[in-house]
TrEMBL record:
The lineage of its organism: Bacteria, Pseudomonadati, Pseudomonadota, Alphaproteobacteria, Acetobacterales. InterPro entries: Flag_assembly_chemotaxis_eff (IPR053716). This is Flagellar FliJ protein. It comes from Rhodovastum atsumiense.
Length: 141
């Protein structure tokens, strides 16, 4: 593989890393939003329960809480489900970023090995040229 192809591969791998970083950032924001929604749903249940159990609350407030509670629990379950899915998507994005970084590092190492190989070949050619020049000058009277 020639150097230009390797440089293109490296550029593509770095672009994939950037894309994976952006995706992870988006997933982290989504996870934060679902965490906030879950906290809001849980907070709503706590507030409604506290209002229904307050010393000045009448039976109507307790009945309203009892009627509302299934809705509040459903909202909390949905928020928890969304948060779990967001957490899984974040973990997947972290994994994808790790893979993209590994691929970029492999491309960098491949290019370094290629460059080192060509440097060794050039050094050998230079040494052969110096040896040839030395042997020619040694043959001259």
């Amino acid at each position: 593989m020639n150097r230009a192809v390797m440089l293109t591969l490296l550029r593509l791998r770095r672009l994939a890393c950037e894309d994976a970083r952006r995706t992870l950032a988006t997933r982290l924001q989504e996870e934060d939003a679902t965490r906030a929604a879950l906290a809001a749903a849980e907070g709503g249940i706590v507030r409604e329960r506290a209002a229904a159990a307050a010393p000045g609350a009448d039976d109507a407030m307790a009945e309203a809480f009892a009627a509302w509670l299934p809705h509040g629990l459903r909202a909390r379950a949905q928020a928890d489900d969304s948060h779990q899915r967001a957490g899984a998507a974040t973990a997947e994005a972290r994994s994808a970023l790790a893979m993209a970084r590994t691929n970029a590092e492999a491309a960098e190492r491949l290019l370094a090995v290629h460059d080192a190989h060509h440097a060794i070949k050039a050094a050998r050619r230079a040494q052969a040229a110096m040896d040839e020049a030395a042997s020619r000058s040694a043959r001259r009277p």
